């Protein structure tokens, strides 16, 4: 190889590197708050987080009150200020547009956040936690009544052990009656159909579900169709189960974010 040819190849490589760096920097103006699911930790969504970062998006994965280690130390509504902090972190990094995404209960919480705070979009990935549905409410009914009784007696801040249900598994929670009710009350704030309908106008909405996920059978009419109309709204189906959907859908999610950016600049 001649010296001139080596120099040409090097120059082309430099130009490609600069172009890629510029593209990545431009995408970094888009930030994503990515929320894990119930009894999980941020690492459980690391596959999707890595895919987003590799495509130049700014990403933060906060540990939420319902994590494996925090074990429901704050009420459902108190997830809002925690996400506020994550959004502020992305803004400091230069994000001009911010999306809130979540897996399972994290998707549920992301949807609720979109009813309280204006963001560019909400991504519900393998959405979970359905306290209004009979399959869930019937399994926690006695504990809900116990918690309501404690609240009515002025004991809402006392610890108790309550039933829970998570993707077909029975479980228990040791938390206060008020905190417990905030997550599982069938008339409470964690109802995805109601929250989809209450999304702030202008919020783009992506719903991603796997074919092997129980909620897949409910289709778009369950919650997605109730969201305010938006040209960026999309219902995506992937061949996956509940746990693996974030990674299985990574390419679809990246493509949706890039398409949103391209059409909203």
Architecture blueprint of SSEs:
Blueprint: H1 3-27, E1 30-35, H2 46-54, E2 58-60, H3 79-92, E3 97-104, H4 105-116, E4 121-127, H5 134-152, E5 159-166, E6 169-176, H6 177-184, H7 192-197, E7 204-210, E8 234-238, H8 245-248, H9 250-263
Parallel strand pairs: 1-2, 1-3, 3-4, 4-7, 7-8
Antiparallel strand pairs: 5-6
Helix pairs in contact: 2-9, 5-6
Written overview of the protein:
With 265 residues, the chain is of the alpha/beta class. The protein folds into two domains: 29-129 and 190-265, Rossmann fold; 135-188, no CATH class. Helices cover 42% and strands 20% of the residues. The chain has helices at residues 3-27, 46-54, 79-92, 105-116, 134-152, 177-184, 192-197, 245-248, 250-263; strands at 30-35, 58-60, 97-104, 121-127, 159-166, 169-176, 204-210, 234-238. The strands form two sheets. A six-stranded parallel β-sheet has the order 2-1-3-4-7-8, with helices on both faces. Strands 5-6 form a two-stranded antiparallel ribbon. Strand 1, helix 2 (46-54) and strand 2 (58-60) form a beta-alpha-beta unit. The longest helix is centred in the first third of the chain and has 25 residues, at 3-27. The relative contact order is 0.13. Mean pLDDT is 91; it is low at 5-27.
């Amino acid at each position: 190889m001649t010296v001139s040819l080596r120099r040409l190849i090097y120059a082309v490589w430099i130009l490609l590197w600069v172009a890629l760096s510029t593209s990545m920097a431009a995408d970094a103006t888009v930030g994503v708050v990515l929320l894990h699911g119930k009894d999980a930790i941020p690492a459980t969504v690391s596959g999707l987080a890595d895919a987003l970062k590799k495509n130049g998006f700014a990403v933060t994965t906060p540990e939420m009150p319902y994590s494996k280690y925090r074990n429901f130390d704050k009420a459902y509504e108190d997830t809002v200020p925690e996400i506020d902090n994550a959004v502020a972190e992305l803004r400091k990094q230069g994000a001009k547009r911010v999306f809130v995404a979540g897996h399972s209960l994290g998707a549920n919480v992301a949807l609720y956040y979109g009813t309280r705070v204006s963001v560019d979009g909400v991504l519900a990935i393998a959405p979970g936690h359905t306290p209004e549905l009979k399959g869930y409410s019937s399994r926690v009914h006695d504990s809900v009544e116990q918690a309501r009784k404690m609240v009515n007696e002025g004991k809402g801040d006392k610890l108790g052990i309550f039933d829970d249900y998570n993707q077909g598994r029975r479980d228990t929670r040791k938390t206060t009656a008020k905190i417990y009710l905030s997550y599982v009350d069938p008339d409470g704030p964690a109802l995805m159909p109601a929250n989809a309908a209450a999304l702030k106008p202008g919020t783009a909405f992506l719903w991603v579900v796997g074919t092997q996920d129980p909620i897949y059978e409910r289709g778009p009419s369950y919650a997605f169709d109730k969201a305010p109309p938006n040209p960026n709204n999309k219902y995506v189906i992937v061949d996956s189960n509940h746990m693996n959907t974030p990674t299985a859908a990574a390419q679809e999610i990246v493509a949706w974010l890039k398409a949103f950016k391209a059409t909203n600049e």
